[in-house]
Design brief:
The protein has helices at about 35-55, 85-95, 100-120, 145-150, 155-160, 170-175, 180-195, 205-215, 225-234; strands at about 1-5, 5-15, 20-25, 60-70, 70-75, 130-135, 140. It is an alpha+beta fold and about 230 residues long. The longest helix has 21 residues, at about 35-55.
């Protein structure tokens, strides 16, 4: 079981076919019954609409949603390698940098996934390392489509939507209209994070962080990486 800002992710087994899935549990305890049912309906509708047009090897498959004991449970494909945020943390804790070849292998797959998504006229809007997953074989999968937007009125998700905007583009933090380019900005933030094992924009407070995002101020990546990858981030 893994805890996230938005709730708890737990490995479950299907009683129908014995297959493994991940169940993400999000607390809806502060909502009344009508609001909880509306949240479930919106998630089911949003996911169904998105996944009807998104069928790709680099995208996490969605199975179903349900509400149980005041929690919204979203059942998804299980990726044995965990999320990319865990990979970043493990390498940071060990002091071992990721190789450029590994970084670019993951990044290329993310680019393929996002290109496919945008071709389908879909914006992800919540791209971050904790929403990128890895299979046992190292295949990268982009997940969690539409969940943050649907649940933005709950206290749990408000931390993700309104909280520290590490991956948010300048237009998003300024509350201006934004396009699929904001997803590409977040992709750049992930590439930076894989190279440095830290967020591109860091400050002591939210205002300082927003200022750095708007000014596009970030430290250079380690010199062990090529000039080409630095240019790509920029």
């Amino acid at each position: 079981m893994v805890r996230h800002q938005t709730g708890v992710a737990q490995l479950v087994t299907s009683l129908e076919d014995g297959a493994a899935y991940v169940a993400k549990k999000i607390n809806l305890g502060n909502l009344n019954e009508k609001e909880r049912n509306a949240a479930l309906g919106e998630v089911a509708t949003t996911q169904a609409e998105v996944l009807r047009c998104l069928q790709h090897p680099n995208i996490v498959a969605y199975r179903e949603s349900l509400i149980e004991e005041g929690e919204l449970i979203i059942v998804m494909e299980y990726c044995e390698g965990g999320d990319m945020a865990r990979q970043v943390k493990e390498h940071k804790d060990s002091g071992e940098m990721l190789s450029e070849a590994q970084i670019m292998t993951w990044f290329a797959q993310l680019c393929i996934a996002l290109h496919y998504v945008h071709q389908k006229k879909v914006m992800h809007r919540d791209i971050k390392t904790s929403n990128v997953y890895l299979t046992r074989s190292g295949l990268v999968k982009l997940g969690d489509f539409g969940i943050a937007k649907v649940l933005e009125n709950t206290a749990d998700v408000a931390m993700t939507v309104v909280g520290t905007p590490y991956y948010m583009s300048p237009e998003v933090v300024e509350n201006r209209p934004y396009s699929a380019k904001s997803d590409v900005w977040a992709l750049g933030c992930i590439l930076y994070e894989l190279c440095t094992l830290k967020h591109a924009f860091v400050a002591d407070n939210l205002l300082g962080l927003v200022f750095k995002i708007l000014r596009e101020r970030y430290e250079a990546i380690p010199s062990v990486y090529s000039a080409e990858i630095s240019t790509l981030i920029k």
